[in-house]
Amino acid sequence: MRTVAACTLGKRKTLFLDGPREQADGGPQSTRALIFRIPISRINWTTSSFLIGTFVLTLTAVPLYLWHFGIDWFHVAVFAVLLVATGFSITLGYHRLFSHMTFRAKLPVRLFTLIFGAAAFENSVLLWASDHRRHHKHVDHDEDPYDISKGFFHAHIGWLLFKLWPQPPFDNVADLKKDPLVMWQHRHIHFIAVVVSFVLPTLAGFLWDGWVGALGGFLIGGVAKVVVLQHGTFLINSACHSIGRQPYSTRCSARDSFFMALFTFGEGYHNYHHEFQHDYRNGVKPWQWDPTKWLIWLLSKLRLTTGLRRVPQEVIHFAQARVRGLRRQF
């Protein structure tokens, strides 16, 4: 069985697949497993092709379409509506509801977030929640799927382009496996994702402006929307563990960033979230930009969400005072 070994060269860590090689004495490494330091056998070809392909299309085909056919505000509207629906399905549904159980939701909310969450092409909620719960349990350590200590690129997208080794266990979502709706989405995730994310905007574009509109719907409301949304999610794993403030805890790399909150439906207050992961709010201050918490609160007034979990104010103040005290010591 082939395993991954970490070889430290100075301060730089490089991954090699075990096999015939010379000792770390400056000699040549085997080229069977590495090409230009890329572990070829660990490439996740399906995921890599999709992530790179959609990114390239967004940078090439979308500008060409806009240059040739111009901006149609119908496509802008479709892009915005699907971005908001899918984005909230990830932040409110995948993240705060299913991964952290920070509130309870009625059937319409659960079904909506499962259907439109699939359109983000970030996998089923079962797999998403499993990775995310593991991230919180092992943050900044090897078992963390998107461990920032392995580099910004790894935390952002590298962990998806390359298969994690060893493969993480799938043992932390027993509660979700008992949910029939979650398991329905898990079984049909690819079909739901393609229909909602690509077929729906393409069909809307065709009804609006024939085949030209269909192409615009596919490229703008489909491909570009997926890329924008995915990299917003990825930036939480990378930028919010690199840039920002740590007012609540210095025990891990998570940071609060108002700038990131603007582009991620309020998910940018990551230091607070890692310290108090079971609070339905990420931006705990009333003025902090967190539209996801406002939507959860609004849905509670409509009796569509219940049991909103909040950390007591005195506990939050104590955490802030502890951090201030630690900083004074240094």
Features:
12 helices, 2 domains, two-stranded antiparallel ribbon, 6 strands, 330 residues, mainly alpha
Cα(first) to Cα(last) distance is 48 Å
Run of helices and strands: EEEEHHEHHHHHHHHHEH
- Write down the overall mean pLDDT: 89
Unreliably modeled segments: 1-32
Strand segment tally = 6
Tally of individual domains = 2
Helix/strand-derived category reads: mainly alpha
Figure out the total of helices: 12
Q: Could you tell me the strand content as a percent range?
A: 5-15%
Can you tell me the overall shape? globular
Overview of the molecule:
The chain is 57% helix and 6% strand. It is mainly alpha-helical and 330 residues long. It has two domains: 1-25 and 32-39, no CATH class; 43-316, no CATH class. It has a two-stranded antiparallel ribbon with strand order 1-2. The longest helix is centred in the middle third of the chain and has 50 residues, at 189-238. It is globular. The N and C termini lie far apart (48 Å).
In short:
The protein is mainly α.
What is the element layout, followed by pairings?
Blueprint: E1 4-9, E2 12-17, E3 34-35, E4 38-39, H1 45-69, H2 73-99, E5 104-105, H3 107-118, H4 125-137, H5 152-161, H6 174-177, H7 180-187, H8 189-238, H9 258-263, H10 270-275, H11 291-301, E6 305-306, H12 313-329
Antiparallel strand pairs: 1-2, 3-4, 5-6
Helix pairs in contact: 1-8, 2-3, 2-4, 2-8, 3-8, 5-8
